[in-house]
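Weekly modeling sync, notes
Attendees: S.R. (lead), two postdocs, one rotation student

Agenda item 3: backlog of single-chain predictions. S.R. asked that every request posted to the team notebook include the full sequence so nobody has to chase files. The rotation student volunteered to paste the first one in as an example of the format we agreed on. Action items at the bottom.

Example entry:
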Amino acid sequence: MAEDTGNWCLIESDPGVFTGLIKGIGVNGVQVEEIYSIDRETLEDLKPVHGLVFLFKWEGRDPAATPGSTAPIEYDNPDVFFAQQVITNACATQAILSILLNSPTVDLGDELNNFKAFVSDFPAELKGHAISNSDVIRAVHNSFSRSDPFINEMHDPSSKEKEDLFHFIAYTPINGSLYELDGLQEGPRNHGPCPGDSWLDKVGPIIQERMARYAGGEIRFNLMAVVDDRIKVIEEKRKSYEEQLAAMQQKEGPDAGSWLKSEIEHLKQDIVKEQDKRLKQQRENKLRRHNFVPLIYELLKGLAQEGKLEGLVEEGRTRAKAEAESARQRKAAAAAAGGGGDEDMYMDDD
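Predicted structure, as returned to the notebook:
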């Protein structure tokens, strides 16, 4: 496991963050989508899928402590780009790069094309050092750091309590075989042949089996897919349907092809939804980078000068107590009914 952060920050496990990261490095025509089910139908709707990024809890330095794969490791396969992870906090970016740099159809852009050509003959460990020392990749990665001026002040290095660590790995098809690319391993793991897009059928059970080996009902997992630009994919499908509709109407009359008209309208709505989603992700990424502390300070200062701060603080305390009591009652009711609680968003912090 990597020993230090090397000025690489933690970033959130979020499709908007990873899509922004990919675009920031200069890669064109792809994005990241979060997946809530590994069934074939879900993956079919996202085709073409270049690879999956899987997040799981890292149990410790001992490889046996974390449920892993039993697929054989391939050493020195020149057809597979594999880089060992030599630095902490970089595994999310490294998992994304593992997919992009092994996909023959992705437009990598000048930066990654030059990087891939430069390190092509490097051993896995040196590839990892090359990633960690890339000013461009590191700068884009760190641009998604949350602005939090209280992290250093509030962190107690003497505390015995340790936060859970999470790790990202990649699954992607390469030359007709399904590979698992984990930078903390000695090499890529080959899960066997998968001609065409049959890897989508093969990868689901592999991930599910790995999740099932965790003890204690561990449910903190995350799965994302690197896919082609969804707007481009939907637009191409819409144009194809419009061409089919025009040909059908020319042959059968203007009233023909009602089902095609309906599909075209649905696709137009899907494009609008995707555009709205992107605007939301862009806004969220801007908010992640913004430091609101100066604004909050000035607001509190103004309220104090007007003599309103003390009353608001007391009102806040009363409300917090009421909400805490309400939450305690809901938790007790859920426990009595055998229910569970919500999970937080997980961070890349291995």
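Discussion: group reviewed the output briefly. Residues 150-161, 340-347 have pLDDT under 50 and may be disordered.
Action items: rotation student to repeat for the remaining queue; S.R. to check formatting next week.
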